[in-house]
Amino acid sequence: MYSEKVMDHFQNPRNVGEIENASGVGTVGNAKCGDIMRMFLDIDENGVIRDVKFKTFGCGAAVATSSMATELVKGKTIDQAMQVTNKAVMEALDGLPPVKVHCSLLAEEAIHAALWDYAQKQGIEIEGLKKPKADISEEEPEENY
Amino acid sequence: MIYLDNAATTKTAPEVVEAMLPYFTEMYGNPSTIYSLGSESKKAVNSARRILAESIGAKMEEIYFTAGGSESDNWAIKAAAEAYCAKGKHIIVSRIEHHAVLHTCEYLEKRGFEVTYLEVDRDGMVDPETLRKAIRPDTILISIMFANNEIGTIEPIAQLGQIAHENGILFHTDAVQAYGQLPIRVDEMNIDMLSASGHKLNGPKGIGFLYIRTGVKIGSFVHGGAQERRRRAGTENVPGIVGLGAAAKRAMERMESKTETEIALRDYLIGRLEREIPYCRLNGHRTRRLPNNVNVSFDYIEGESMLIMLDMKGICASSGSACTSGSLDPSHVLLAIGLKHEQAHGSLRITLSEENTREEMDIVVDELKQIVQRLRDMSPLYEDFIKKEKAKD
C-alpha cells in the first residue's frame, strides 16, 4: 500500500531524536486518532534551520511524512520552510494512500508549530504563520482535515 | 514466514482442498437436477450437512449454507427482526460484537428498531445479570458472540441463552471464531441460531452456515429457487460446502490435541511478553480465552508501525489500531474493555495455529522486543513518560 520512498523513510527515518534547548519545539496531533508528531528546530542567528529532529507516535505514513518533512526544511531559511506544504511532503514521498493524507497535513502543522514556538521565544512574527491548531496539551483537540 | 493471524483466516488444509477438487471438474452437476451427476452433488451437500449438524448437536434440516459469517449474522438478525416485529422492536447485543452484527443493528435502528448494547467488564465478559436487567417486554432477539474475535474472551453462552429462554426471547450467537475451536451443543447451550464460517477452521473462504432451530420462524434472506428448504436461494456452492464439511470433520477430530498445543504456545508467548517487555498488558480474559488468541497492548507505540516492522521480519499479525481499520477510531472492542485510545492504537493480536512452534514464539518475542524499543525511541509519548518518571526521582 505504501510507495518505496514511504517504506524507505519508515524503515530508515532521517533525523529521529531530540534537540536539547531547541530554538523551537512543536507537538501536533492527538492520541485519539493515533498520530502525534513533535518537531525540534535549531535555528541560527540568520534564521537558517541548522538542525531538525522529530519524534512521532503513529503509523508508517506518519513516521515517513515526519522524516521527509525534516529533510525538506533542514538547511533552509524560515521563509523557505514556510513553503513546505503537505503537498510537497506527499510529492517527495511519491504519494500516500488517500486515508493517509492527513499524516502529511500533520507534518506541515508540526513544522508550523515548531516555528510558532520559535517566534514566541524570539518575540518575532513570521509572515503567514498562524497559531497551531492541534496540540496534545489541549483538551479534546479537533483536527481540521 | 511466520503466520500468526489465524483469526483473520486460516490456511486451507490440503485434505480439504483434495476433498473439494472433484466437485469442480468431475462432479460438477447442479444438486437440483434429476440425473445422476446432479445426485452426486446433492449427496455431497447432504453429507456435509450431516457433519455440521452432528458437530453442534443439531438436526440436519436445521443447517443452512450461506456465503459465510457475515451473511449468517445479517440473515439471523434482519430476518428475526422482520419475523417478530409484531411482538416488539427491541434487540439486545453486546458492545463487542463483530461489525457484521453491529452494523446490521445500526441498519435496523434506522428502520424503527431499538438496540441495547450491553457493556462488558475489563476482560470483555458480558455479565448475565446485566443482560437480565436489559430485557424488556418488547425484546425479540438477543445476540451475543460465542467468543470475541479480537481479544478471544469466551462469553457465558449457556447462561445467557438460558436467560433469553426464561423470558421467551430468541437467542442468536455469532460463533465464527469459536466454531471448530470450542465444543458447542446448541441444546445444552440454549442457542436458537448460530453463525459459523468455513475459512476460520482451515476450510475454504466464501462458505459458512447458519443453524436455525426448528420452530424459529424466520423468513428467507435470499429469494429465488427452492434451495435450502426455500430459505436461501441460489445454486449451492458445492465445492465450498464439501470443503466446509471436510474442515469441520477435521476440526472436530483434532480439537482436543489442537487446543492443548495452542494453549501451551499461547500461555508461553503471553508469559514471555509480559515478563520481557515493559508497559505491556494482556487484553481479554486470561483463562476464559480462545486457545489460539493472544492480544496485548504496548504503551506509547502505534500498531500499524509495529505490523509493518513485523512484516519486514516475515511475521504476519494484526492490530486494533485505527490505521489498520481504515478509520480514525481504534478497535471498538478495546475501547469497550476500558483501554485508552493510545493503548488501543498500540495493540497487537497474534492468533496461533497448531502448526506454530515454540521456536517461532521465541523469534516473535525477540523481534518484538527490538521493534517495541525502536518505536518507543521515536515516540513523543514515551519521551514524556520517561521525563515524568525522571522528575519523580
Annotation keywords:
heterodimer, A: 145 residues, Sufe protein. Chain: A, 3-stranded antiparallel beta sheet, 5 helices, 39% helix, disordered C terminus, B: 393 residues, alpha/beta, Aspartate Aminotransferase, domain 2, Aspartate Aminotransferase, domain 1, 15 helices, 45% helix
Structural class of chain A: alpha+beta
CATH class of chain A: Alpha Beta
Strand content of chain A: 15-25%
**Roughly what percent helix of chain A?**
25-40%
Report the CATH architecture of chain A. Alpha-Beta Complex
Largest interface: A-B, 27 and 25 residues
Could you walk me through the main structural features you see in this protein, from its secondary elements to its overall organization?
The complex is a heterodimer of chains A (145) and B (393). Chain A is 39% helix and 17% strand. Chain A is α+β, with helices and mostly antiparallel strands and 145 residues long. Chain A has one domain: Sufe protein. Chain: A (Alpha-Beta Complex), CATH 3.90.1010.10. Chain A has a three-stranded antiparallel sheet with strand order 1-2-3. In chain A, strand 2 (35-43) and strand 3 form a beta hairpin. In chain A, helix 1 (4-11) crosses helix 2, helix 2 (60-73) packs across helix 5 (101-122) and helix 4 crosses helix 5 (101-122). Residues 137-145 of chain A have low confidence and may be disordered. Chain B is α/β, with parallel strands linked by helices and 393 residues long. Chain B folds into two domains: 13-251, Type I PLP-dependent aspartate aminotransferase-like (Major domain) (Aspartate Aminotransferase, domain 2, 3-Layer(aba) Sandwich); 255-386, Aspartate Aminotransferase, domain 1, CATH 3.90.1150. In chain B, 45% of the residues lie in helices and 13% in strands. Chain B has 15 helices and twelve strands. In chain B, the strands form three sheets. Chain B has a seven-stranded mixed sheet with strand order 2-8-7-6-5-3-4, sandwiched between helices. The longest helix of chain B is centred in the middle third of the chain and has 39 residues, at 238-276. Classes of the chains: A alpha+beta (145), B alpha/beta (393). Chain A binds chain B through residues 7, 10-11, 13, 16, 18, 27, 31-38, 54-63, 99-100, and chain B through 300-302, 304-305, 308, 312, 321-323, 326, 328-330, 340-342, 345, 377-383.
